[in-house]
User: Fold these one by one.
Assistant:
Number 1:
Amino acid sequence: MEYLLNATSKNILWSAISTPTGLEGWFADRVLSDDKIVTFCWGKTEQRVAEIVAIRSYSFIRFHWLDNEHEREYFEIKMTNSELTNDFVLEITDFADEDEADDVRELWESQVETLRRTCGF
């Protein structure tokens, strides 16, 4: 999925997608990081733990949920810059079962909308 953002600063966007504080602004209620292991918390009881399996500064961050039995499945948040408009594009790659794909797409759309509001994109 791709989302056009009216971001003017690659530093602000990179911080929003790659740091615990940034992710707390739009992706999860609380984010705890211990090097490559990241715990995402929602509400008082829901939490999932992911490992950062790949990262390139100012480009992308890829997570693998530790409770996912499929080693090759991940979710990735990638930022690219459109040379034509100078806007940033957020590319989301996520794996879902066919019957859950629409729900996952709606969840990402909601999360990215929150990102737009909190960061002014």
Number 2:
Amino acid sequence: MYRYVLLSRDKTTVPLCEEMAFVEAYLYLNKTRFRDDLQVEHQISAAAYATSVAPLSLQMLVENAIKHNVISPESPLCVTLYTETDDTYVRVQNNVQPKTGLEQSTKVGLRNIISRYRLLFEHPVEVLRENGLFTVRVPLLS
């Protein structure tokens, strides 16, 4: 994982396949911690793997989901990563079950991702919170 961080930190974009491999490594560690309480599904189209994203962006979104939500046998966290039909966006989505007793989120990580994409892509990052789900749409660069 550290190798990916070091190799990608100076890049503006990385192939989606590399970012997803990093997300999988990150999730492997967290699944060890949370077991079946962390449920992850990904539906990335084959064509989308040839596109690019900003490095560490998808991992940060998964990390935020884990950081800000209760994860327990009674309330498992469900995270889904999937590409939209036209392969122009990848969505990172999770059920919302906020932790209590902690400081409010500063949203620095999310603002960082939005700012980076504003510089790199013509399409913006979109953040949606509705029907008990938190969704971030991240544009893919072909």
